[in-house]
From TrEMBL:
<dbReference type="Pfam" id="PF08991">
    <property type="entry name" value="CMC4"/>
</dbReference>
<keyword id="KW-1015">Disulfide bond</keyword>
<comment type="similarity">
    <text>Belongs to the CMC4 family.</text>
</comment>
<keyword id="KW-0677">Repeat</keyword>
<dbReference type="GO" id="GO:0005758">
    <property type="term" value="C:mitochondrial intermembrane space"/>
</dbReference>
<keyword id="KW-0496">Mitochondrion</keyword>
<feature type="disulfide bond">
    <location>
        <begin position="28"/>
        <end position="39"/>
    </location>
</feature>
<feature type="disulfide bond">
    <location>
        <begin position="18"/>
        <end position="49"/>
    </location>
</feature>
<feature type="disulfide bond">
    <location>
        <begin position="50"/>
        <end position="66"/>
    </location>
</feature>
<protein>
    <recommendedName>
        <fullName>Cx9C motif-containing protein 4, mitochondrial</fullName>
    </recommendedName>
</protein>
<dbReference type="InterPro" id="IPR009069">
    <property type="entry name" value="Cys_alpha_HP_mot_SF"/>
</dbReference>
<dbReference type="InterPro" id="IPR027179">
    <property type="entry name" value="CMC4"/>
</dbReference>
Amino acid sequence: MPFQRSKDELDPDHPNPCYPRACAIQSCLQKSGFDQSRCESLIDDLYRCCAKFYQQRGNDAEADSCPIPTVVQRRIHNMQHDAKRRDGGSLLETKKR
């Protein structure tokens, strides 16, 4: 049986490991009539993925599906602030739906 990574692990050999999350956002937006509020959890998942991507590969790394590191850092900061107010959950874990 081949090794499978959990949803929270990035493939270190893949040039764009967050791409599937970006595709999931696009599908969600199309299905929801482009109502972004209905896809927020997927958008958060992408930013978590991109944060891990930059942690692993450095801020000079590039991936088509990830915004620049400063944008990711700002979003993550805001997500952390919101999580502390809500429930104190771990930021870099993908939320179960």
